[in-house]
Amino acid sequence: MSDEIEDALDELLREQFAGPVADGGFSLSVMEQLPARRRRKDWPLAIGTLGGVATCWLSLRSSPIAYAGWQDWLSGDLSASAGALLVAIASMAVLAMAWSIAETDDRRSSWPRQTIR
What we know:
By secondary structure, the chain is an all-alpha fold. The protein has one domain. It has five helices and no strands. The protein has helices at residues 3-16, 26-33, 43-60, 64-75, 80-109. Helix 4 crosses helix 5 (80-109). The mean pLDDT is 79.
């Protein structure tokens, strides 16, 4: 469907909709019988993050470009290797942020919608 048709249908539904449909308490009883939401465990994320940092550190520890980049960065000299290191760090931070935003949006869209009475 086009956006114009969807907008027209939404407008018609808004005009005709009188509020929640009475279901005799069925929705409320179903919501009460659902099991409690499990608490999310944070330890797998922490262990994965620490493992990734340790693996990156071990693999780049002997790399000459990473070593030169760290040396230049710590001395305040912005060389090509220090710039590459900064770009890599910034891009990883942006990717982590985008991933966390996507996960948050997915989690919100799967939450049950409850009607406030």
